[in-house]
Amino acid sequence: MFSKISGPYSRPAPIKVKCVAKHTGQRGETYEVVDGVVAIKTSKMVATCALCDGKHFVVAHLKNDDCHRIDDNRSYYIKGYNVSEKYGTCKMFFNPSTVVFSTTEVTVSPDLERLCHHAVCPPSPAYQEGNKADYCTLSGVVASLSTTKLQSTKDGGVPLREIELSAGRDVFRVSLWRDVALEDISLSATIEISHVSVKRNNQAVTFSSTTYTTIKKSEIVPTAEEVEVVGICPTPTDIKILTSSMEEFSIPPHVWSGDTDRLILNLPLTMLIKHNEGVIISVDCPFFTED
């Protein structure tokens, strides 16, 4: 039914379908730079719905008020919609003439239900070299990250941030686009990035976020320990300390940004620190509290 379409866009006959799966969220539409920071200027509500007539399904892409016209697990007659196969897959869009009527239940088989759920949220297995899945999930520690910038595209400027994840011997280079580029991510944080696409170029493997991408941060319990500091290294972004056991820790400016020369003159220093994977969140030492 859904595949018999003349031309890239058409307005087929009314259909009776069930919304088997639906995902709704807010998405940035335009972006701006405020005080040097990229932010969302305007946003829209979007919904992705898998609609099934019992034999076939189509994915409907809705926005703003249209998102409220279709509910999960409800059946409808829909008239005056548009269907597109412009990019090789069948997609439905509403227009000002679209009318939605609630109706009796459409029966959908378990196999079709599974396909509908995968269409709204595709599988995203853990990345393995050679895996041919459309999407994969990366996990690791943030080893480096760029500032977020506005990248010019055909849709205007959109946020872009480059990060590197360290996972054992592997380093994953990921380009985060649009709203996920605005997520609060910090160095040394352990994160999981789902639904990234894989790009291979001359044996180099890189990854890019997609419209399905989500970022999860691991809950980390701070570690408290007493250390003996034997070296200090101020940098433009933090203060690095070296302990007698040759471990390195980072002190962010919001934790302390005082006179490092005075610290160096009084080395070695014994201090009690709390840190998250090497990033210090508190320091207990007289030299860090005195003026």
Descriptive notes:
The protein is mainly beta. The protein has three domains: 9-120, Beta Barrel (OB fold (Dihydrolipoamide Acetyltransferase, E2P)); 136-217, OB fold (Dihydrolipoamide Acetyltransferase, E2P), CATH 2.40.50.140; 223-288, Nucleic acid-binding proteins (OB fold (Dihydrolipoamide Acetyltransferase, E2P), Beta Barrel), CATH 2.40.50.140. 6% of the residues lie in helices and 52% in strands. It has helices at residues 110-120, 260-265, and strands at residues 9-10, 15-34, 37-52, 57-63, 75-79, 82-84, 91-93, 99-102, 136-145, 149-153, 156-167, 170-177, 190-201, 204-208, 215-217, 223-234, 239-243, 248-251, 269-276, 279-284. The strands form three sheets. An eight-stranded mixed sheet has the order 1-6-7-4-3-2-5-8, covered by helices on one side. β11 (156-167) and β12 (170-177) form a beta hairpin. The protein is elongated and about 80 Å long. Residues 3-9 have low confidence and may be disordered.
Q: Name the structural class.
A: mainly beta
The parts where pLDDT drops under 50 for at least 5 residues are: 3-9
Mean pLDDT: 88
Main sheet characteristics: 8 strands, mixed
Instruction: Supply the number of helical segments.
Output: 2
Strand order of the largest sheet: 1-6-7-4-3-2-5-8
Give the number of domains. Answer: 3
CATH topology of the largest domain: OB fold (Dihydrolipoamide Acetyltransferase, E2P)
As a percent range, the share of helical residues equals under 10%
Assign the CATH architecture of the largest domain.
Answer: Beta Barrel
Q: Could you state the CATH homologous superfamily of the largest domain?
A: Nucleic acid-binding proteins
- Measured by DSSP, the beta-strand proportion falls in over 45%
Global shape: elongated
CATH class of the largest domain: Mainly Beta
- Radius of gyration, CA atoms, in whole angstroms: 26 Å
Strands, count: 20
Order of helices and strands: EEEEEEEEHEEEEEEEEEEHEE
